[in-house]
Fold these 2 entries.
Entry 1:
Amino acid sequence: MTRTAFVIGATGQVGRAAVRALAEDGWDVRAASRRGESDANWPDGVRTVVLDREDIAALETALGDGCDVLVDMVAYHAEHARQLTSLAGRIGSAVVISSGAVYEDDQGRSFDTQSGPDGFPHYPLPIPESYRTVTAGEATYGTRKVALEQGLLAAGESLPTTLVRAGAIHGTYNLRPRELFFIKRAVDKRPVRVLAHNGESRFHPVHTANLAELIRLAARTPGSRVLNAGDPQAPTVAEIGTAIDAVLGHSCETVLVEGPAPAENVGDSPWGIAHPVVYDMTAAERELGYRAVTSYQDSLAETVAWTVDRLGDRDWTEAFPEMYRTYGSHGDMFDYAAEDRWLAGRSG
Ligand SMILES: NC(=O)c1ccc[n+]([C@@H]2O[C@H](COP(=O)([O-])OP(=O)(O)OC[C@H]3O[C@@H](n4cnc5c(N)ncnc54)[C@H](OP(=O)(O)O)[C@@H]3O)[C@@H](O)[C@H]2O)c1
């Protein structure tokens, strides 16, 4: 009998890839989102569903007789765990996207403390899933994800759930593409860039196709577990810049700075972290036989093409408003004047 999958958040960057992977693997997929959109790359037979998952009655109705696996891209807190566990009788198993932001180092540092002095966590390299996490709560994105995880793991066999702790997600349909930091500079033919931390920052990326593969395998083999999700390599920020330049045929001078950003809006980037964040992938390999289906380098040209196309001639804040909301509060990523002032002061 055909196995059924119900995907919440189906038209986001991860959802699009996951729906495709599941449908191509023979699942009968219902693809739910508030706008109920479809994707040209989905095989025939995928059914779209208009659903706001915050509306529990609507979710119950949409689920109908239920599904063999429910895949949730947009679960963020304990209430979402309660919502899913209340439907356990109708859901065979679940795969839910969590985040690497849950980890806390042995000094109590996490992504939540990164703006303070020496606040960036010093994680082990790589971080295993067994490593400690922030305390569950309502305070931050990370604490809420931990609460979500704990709520779902507590369901045990009544709703076997794989929590996927994703790294820095990249791919097409990314509304907050970190890659834009280098892409826009290349499009603007910016001749120079400044990278703090000697350009050696590493924030483990994960391509949407690799996440989709992990989701596909977890759907096949239900279990109550937590798994990291990262690409086969974790390139440095300098390597990412070089790779994006190569895709776009751009060349520029990279000025490397020891230590943190030397001035406001100078040297920082979406990957510009003080200590490496690399996720251990051996559990996914061991438990599910997971093998990555692509790498950062191999997937980059498609991601860059999609991002350049969406940017078009528009101001980036208009083309990527979600990205502006996420990163805009931390300063202007494209403050070329500040960069030029700092470079002039340095050489003078
Ligand atoms: N970005 C990263 O680097 C990163 C890193 C680690 C973990 N994560 C996790 O990744 C997940 C986000 O996945 P994504 O990047 O694929 O998201 P996304 O691209 O922002 O897409 C979100 C999807 O969910 C739908 N959606 C939003 N709210 C909904 C609602 N209330 N009910 C039903 N559908 C809804 C959206 O379509 P409509 O607008 O039509 O509803 C869309 O299909 C989150 O769990 C996040 O914590 C992200």
Entry 2:
Amino acid sequence: MRSPQRTRLALLFGGVSEEHIVSLQSAAAVLRALNQERWDVCLVGISPEGRFLNEEDSAALLEGRSCKGPGGLPFLPEGTECVFPVLHGPGGEDGTLQGWLELCDIPFVGSGTLGSALAMDKSVAKRVMRDAGIEVVSWTEIRHRDYLADKEIVLSHLVDDRGLPCFVKPACQGSSVGITRVETEEELRASLDHAFSFGEWVLVEPALNAKELEIAVLGGPEPFATAPGEVQPEEWYDFSSKYENGTTELVVPAEDLQPQMIEGMQEIALRAFDVLRLSGMARVDFFIGKKTGRLVVNEVNTIPGFTSISMYPKLMEHSGIGFSELCDRLIEEALSRKDSPEESLPSHLQAEYGTA
Ligand SMILES: Nc1ncnc2c1ncn2[C@@H]1O[C@H](COP(=O)(O)OP(=O)(O)O)[C@@H](O)[C@H]1O
Ligand SMILES: [Mg+2]
């Protein structure tokens, strides 16, 4: 039964992206952390085919059991007052879902359509940050049709511009999906074909010899940036070292950083949060050159990993905000953002775009 004291919260998870499984892990951790006395949680699973599942099948998806039905078009359970999208990658973190939620006029955790879309495309996000004076990893962007038009010329330009070793990445993926560390020209060819299988645009960057540092940002009237944490993968932070083989160490807080460097990173993280038009939360990822000491931003994630061992909740916990309180604050922030006048829909539209 619905309790009048509780706010009805739809937890969205799964989805069509390559990060479906990661989303299930994140959502399970968020569900465990949510204070059931405050939040009347309803589960909305999205199948890998993009179908929205009913309550029973949503629970089955989350628990790794098989679903009875194929599900249907996007919907929210009756009475939903707020949505917590715990979805990673395309179709969940890239602004498409956020656009739908904005049309439904329902408050939701995290960034809106514009910020989500900007941050999802690594190349566009870097242009926006660079324009705001933020140093980012240098890169070349390539469009699939230009690559197909003259592969040999593109390959030789890439080797001249970026050198080897380099990193090849699809513009719009996460969790290291489609990314290759390339040592030779032959590998470059194969890795470009692989990266283009995920989308039209691909980035090539020089492989940096750098430490990887991450800062968590919590939005609100005065967004707050945590101390940095360090990711220490055995080689580079690929999909299996992120989620499968447990070989990566997360050091929170990062060690051996001068206070001035930490402050500088926090300022950059907050600036990136603003210029990319983000809200709610973000994780801003940096590299610091091991020899050069040069600080650059790698990327910004608008729905960072939320498993209990993920960096975002760990950084917040180190700042005194435990997982459960973190969820409270994210939802409260979403609800209060909805109350601010510039965010709300005109009243004639509010009547038309209700929840299902
Ligand atoms: N230019 C680079 N130099 C060195 N390592 C890199 C570079 N780009 C990416 N990496 C490695 O690949 C990982 C994944 O790349 P990233 O750009 O963060 O994509 P994703 O969105 O999939 O996390 C990084 O965490 C890092 O370990
Ligand atoms: Mg990353």
